[in-house]
Specification:
Structural class: mainly alpha
Helix content: 55-70%
Mean pLDDT: 83
Distance between the termini: 56 Å
Number of helices: 13
Strand content: under 5%
Radius of gyration: 24 Å
Length: 372
Amino acid sequence: MTTTRAMRRMTDPPGDHPTNPAAPPGAAPPRDPPTGPPTGPSADLSAGAEPRTRTGAVRPTSTVPAGTGVLRAAAVIATVPYLVLKGAWLAGSRIGIPDGSVLLEPGPLPAVANAVTMAMDACVIVLALLLTRPWGRRVPGPLLIVPVYTATGLLTPILTGFPGQLVVRALGLGAGDVVKAARGPFLDDWVYTVVYGGFIVQGLALAGLFVPYARERWGRCWQGPPGRRLPSPTGVVAGAAATVGAAVGAIPLYWAVGGAAWLSARQVAQYSAESGVISAVHGLCALAAGAGALLLARGGGVRVRWPLALAWIGSSASLGWGLWLLTAVLGLEFADSERLSPMIYLAYAGQVIVGGLCAAVLARFTRSRLAA
């Protein structure tokens, strides 16, 4: 029971903080100067075509965008505070953990969670190298897309929510003493600033590395308008994503403005404008996922980068956090006064559904563009 209390504090909805990445071989020169237009690979290059190998496959270029080294270093350095804290906690240190915190109670679950999240953050280092080193061009697409998609989903609410919470506090609308007392001790305030500040740097650096990498490797996926409609079955999936996204997005937006329906007494007591920011972010992500899926499926003249960004960010955040929170609450035991309403489970399941539906549309759209 004590260990589940610690896990509940790390995943409890809605919280006061975001809950917890050569040129092709040329032909031998002729004996006599050519008298006509160039032919062969040199003709392709002179005409502006992509360089190709002997088999005709497009050879990746080696252009390195300016600032790549800085972004890579920033991403790697930003992982240090989190990795050091997690390592210290696994070693038995209680730095940043106040007296009375449930994290100090015995049990294996906090240690397992620390080890898993430490490994996840270490993957940012691998991603930063993969996106900037020549061998990264040879990595199969799915082995890159899955971790980048996951990192996008997990970091988006932090990149948007934590700065929003800082603004709320600066305006004097932060959690009061009554709300803080209802929550009880968990972590020192400086821990959130250091850890989430590092996450924000990681997210911005990885975005700055991934966008030019993806533009060079899969640029035709986001060039021009979406084009013609996707096949009818995909349109049905997109319509379902938009419908579920509208319903699922409305629930956390209702909680964000202070709505108390379907919340336990403990959750109502812990509500503040800061927690409302996080609820609003989750609601907007669900709406973005539905809108992005619908725009990709229906085609049209809108520049494809905007619906593609909505679908990518919205679906990854909804799927990632919905799956995390749903798994957490299903694995916890609650006292009668803390028991969650069925709507909480439905809201988290809805996030998973809309994220999965939008991801399916996104995959179908990407395949159609690459095959064109």
